[in-house]
Amino acid sequence: MVKKKKTPHVLLIRLSALGDVVMLLPVVRSMREQHPDVALTVLSQPFARPFFEAIEGVNFIEADIRKRNKGIRGLWRLARTLEKENDFTAIADVHSVLRSWLLIFFLRLLHLPHLYKIRSIDKGRKEKKLLTREKGKKLFPLTHTVKRYADVLQRLDCKVQIPYELGGLTPVEIPATLLSVLNKNSLRVGIAPFAKHRGKIYPLERMQELVKRLVKQDIQVLLFGSRGEEELLLERWATKPNIVVLPAYHLNLQEELSVMQRLDLMVSMDSANMHLASWAGTPVISIWGATHRYAGFYGWGQSENLSVEREELDCRPCSIYGNKKCLRGDYACLDISVDELLKRILHELPRRSDDPA
Question: What is the DSSP string of 230-241?
Answer without folding.
Answer: HHHHHHHH--ST
